[in-house]
Design a protein that fits this description.
Blueprint: H1 8-12, H2 15-24, E1 27-30, E2 35-38, H3 41-49, E3 53-54, H4 76-82, H5 93-104, H6 107-112, H7 114-130, E4 133-135, H8 136-141, H9 143-153, H10 163-171, H11 180-206, H12 212-217, H13 224-255, H14 257-265, H15 270-280, E5 286-291, E6 295-297, E7 300-302, E8 307-311, H16 312-315, H17 350-367, E9 372-373, E10 392-394
Parallel strand pairs: 2-8
Antiparallel strand pairs: 1-2, 3-5, 4-10, 5-8, 6-7, 9-10
Helix pairs in contact: 4-11, 7-9, 7-17, 9-13, 10-11, 10-13, 11-13, 13-15, 13-17
């Protein structure tokens, strides 16, 4: 098999191909997307921190100056939302946004959410156990982060059902060469979510409550568009990743029953187990960066204006960094995985994601100690954001 992100067999198990790339072609050009694939941990980690690359190039030049056509006009509403958040912008705008958002999204605030996250996870698992099991993704993995983020943002209960579809549709734009239908769907979702948040933000600016939208509306120097872009980013990044780490993580444990038994017998392993599940089958397989100046990677010259595809899934299995990397080890202590990124774009929501994962896995281990898989799950078609369609289990 070769690198083929549209092939279901590759999406289901890309790790053999990654090993071949690391050994034979650690820096290689992928013609279908016009990207350079970077597969070794050392290179991926270095490029994440290298300021000669960026999530965007528009802070240093136009599309034309970088040899690219501007996005089609119908995508404008999508990019207005996305470019107002901090993920796809670079300093000095990124620096200002991250500093402003960090004032409202403090470590103390995030840690204060732990009891509430624990209560939500416990209630979801109690209901799941009472009915004898079901789709772990739909009934636990998805509603937990949606509920947490909705409560953080102050989204009314009656509107929370809108969040998951918006998030999934928006993230469709981030796949490689998305088809026209997915592009239009992403634009529509971005417009709808932005319109919803604009109304909510204006209400909270006049009548602030104890929620993140209210807090952001009071932050001096943050524009309305930037507030909206930030909230959309918090939903998409925090929600999609946590859902897929949960699903991928349980599937990983079911495929490695000895490690699941270790975790069931020794709950003190849960913190290292969460980090290992993030490493072993990360939901974000690829993270893209634009080359802003000519660079050399692994002896290969990469010119300004092209895009590099940093293969997180490959880097996290690099034997130069991880001992016996293809083995799942819930007790692994030397684990510098890069599933949350590195450098200035390191995931702001990583502490919250870890809390959610700790509480959901902990609740299932406590309340459903005999959890069993009903049938082998199927992978969704997406490669960059990689997750399962469902994961059906019984509680024993």
């Amino acid at each position: 098999m070769r690198f083929d992100p549209w092939n279901p067999d590759f999406v289901a198990n890309p790790y053999g191909v990654y090993a071949d790339l690391r050994r034979d072609a650690p820096v290689s050009f992928f013609e279908p997307t016009g990207q350079w694939l970077i597969s070794r941990y050392e290179d991926v980690n270095a490029l994440l921190r290298d300021r000669r690359l960026g999530r965007s190039y528009l802070h240093v030049g136009t599309h034309e100056e970088f040899g690219h056509e501007p996005p089609p006009a119908f995508q404008d509403p999508f990019w207005r939302v996305v470019n107002a958040g901090m993920l796809d912008v670079e300093p000095p705008v990124h620096t200002r946004l991250r500093r402003l958002v960090s004032k409202a999204f403090t470590p103390r605030m995030v840690e204060s959410l732990r009891p509430r996250v624990r209560a939500i996870a416990g209630d979801l698992v109690d209901a799941f156990v009472a009915k004898g099991g079901g789709d772990l993704l739909a009934e636990i993995a998805e509603p937990l982060p949606v509920t947490v983020i909705a409560e953080m943002l102050g989204i009314p209960d009656a509107d929370r059902h809108l969040l998951r579809p918006w998030s999934a549709d928006i993230c469709g734009m981030y796949e490689l060469n998305p088809p026209p239908e997915a592009q239009h769907t992403a634009v529509r979702a971005a417009e709808e979510f932005a319109d919803y948040l604009r109304v909510l933000a204006r209400e909270r600016a006049q009548n602030p409550g104890d929620d993140l939208v209210s807090a952001l509306s009071q932050v001096e120097g943050l524009t309305e568009d930037e507030l909206i872009g930030t909230c959309v980013l918090l939903l998409n990044a925090g929600h999609e990743a946590t859902v897929n780490v949960t699903g991928n993580g349980w599937w990983s444990l079911f495929r490695n029953p000895g490690e699941l038994d270790r975790l069931r017998q020794d709950r003190s392993l849960l913190p290292t187990a969460i980090e290992e599940l993030l490493r072993w089958d990360t939901p974000l397989q690829m993270f893209e960066r634009w080359v802003l100046e000519d660079v050399e990677v692994g002896g290969v010259a990469i010119p300004k204006g092209v895009e590099v595809a940093l293969l997180f899934g490959s880097a996290n299995r690099d034997p130069e960094v991880f001992a016996d990397p293809d083995r799942l080890d819930v007790g692994r202590v030397d684990n510098p995985h890069i599933s949350f990124g590195a450098g200035i774009h390191f995931c702001l929501g990583a502490p919250l994601a870890r809390i959610e994962l700790m509480e959901s896995f902990g609740a299932l281990l406590d309340k459903a100690p005999k959890l069993e898989l009903v049938a082998e799950p199927r992978w969704k078609s997406g490669y960059i954001i990689r997750g399962l369609e469902s994961i059906d289990v019984t509680v024993g």
